[in-house]
Design goal:
Chain lengths: 154, 84, 154, 84
């Protein structure tokens, strides 16, 4: 299962273990994201991550295939949680494998930077009785933009 | 023609609707025309759908507002994504 | 155990699982390297990785601390195997965690690029009856050099 | 003074030695002087220790050949590293 979008809890350790055993390639990079307990305004208790599931699955599949082509990956996997989550719950897991570490790292970072702005998920952070939709950060737009610029050179 | 329209996040909250099934007399329309028509449902609809950062998707692909909508299509409106 | 240099087999899946459970931080990057079954000259059957153990432990500790300082890491771990290995055996595992993914990715890549040229390990590849010490690749020197250059700007 | 000298990889193979314990009359020396002295042990030693890419460490830190060696130090000679 290359892409899995689910409202059940995900287990990055189990996912990494499975990926390593299926793909013991020369270079394997992974990224795991967990719900943070803080934002720019203070403490965060919990997170609601809304998802357009059918579109997310399609976008993440396209993204993995684009990464595979662009960086010559041997294998990749993208798993994304949605729904209600507590702090320290895993949200996302990405794994990429290649013959050389430069490609594995770049592909993993490309997938994360791109899914942040292109996959249909929306975060709402809760602190006490207050809830607030997260707005797009400039740093995320900039990180996404890097890959477009670099793409022109290739 | 019949189309499905979905709303997410802030937009869903503003229009208090998750999903609509619309029967339209035309055999095709555009995303922009659909937005204008939905905007007639009230000020909340008009405001939400005219937000400059609004993103629209047809059949699960992000499109420009000139995109043509045909029978059976799934259209969605939402704010910029914040996943990962 | 932040640094572990061992001639026993290592288990990246178990290491990742442990790291995630101790450090469920917003952004966790990992790298795992496995013995490749090919080199520029053809097929490789097995690998002997010689190690100056006391120095390797010291260099990897210094490297992890440097990465922590430079990228503001919350946590890190470096595990390196040495001795006789078969193809697909895990050689190295690195994990880094931070508040933001840019720092976690950069630190993980910095550690890998630097340990390649600075930690006292030497690879000897075997194919049939033939054995050959691996020489330093220009790409590895270049990747190491990036971090020195970037360092001047910071 | 007494020092330990270690050899790794290609250098270890060339001098057919993993480790030496040396008793020296001087109370200190330099890496360069030690290399010259070890080079007197034969052509294999001389050649291995004069290789332009040779790396030397004192007490597990890479040093220049001018580094001073003192009683109890651990010196090592090896080619460029290829781990990871």
């Amino acid at each position: 299962m290359l892409v899995h979008v689910t409202d059940e809890s995900i287990d990055p350790g189990r996912l990494a273990t499975g990926f390593y055993s299926r793909h013991p390639d020369a270079a394997v990079a992974t990224f795991a994201g967990f719900v943070r307990d803080f934002n720019d305004d203070g403490h965060v208790d919990s997170l609601y991550l809304e998802c357009y599931v059918e579109m997310a699955t399609r976008v993440l599949n396209d993204l993995g295939n684009a990464a595979q082509q662009r960086f010559g990956l041997r294998a990749w996997q993208i798993v994304h949680r949605y729904g209600e989550m507590e702090t320290e719950d895993p949200i996302v897991f990405v794994a990429t494998s290649a013959d050389h570490r430069g490609e594995a790292f770049a592909a993993c970072e490309f997938v994360m930077d791109t899914l942040k702005t292109d996959a249909p998920f929306w975060k709402r952070e809760h602190s006490g009785d207050e809830g607030q939709w997260v707005t797009v950060k400039d740093v995320d737009k900039d990180r996404r933009e890097r890959w477009s610029t670099e793409g022109l050179d290739q | 023609m019949t189309i499905t329209v979905k709303f997410f996040s802030l937009i869903r909250e503003a229009v208090e609707t998750e999903q609509l099934t619309l029967e339209l007399n035309d055999s095709s329309t555009t995303v922009e025309a659909l937005k204008n028509e939905l905007g007639l449902r009230g000020e909340a609809w008009n405001e939400a759908l005219s937000h400059p950062n609004l993103i629209q998707a047809v059949n699960q692909r992000v499109v420009f507002k000139e995109e043509v909508i045909k029978d059976g299509d799934e259209v969605a409106f939402f704010p910029p994504m914040t996943g990962g």
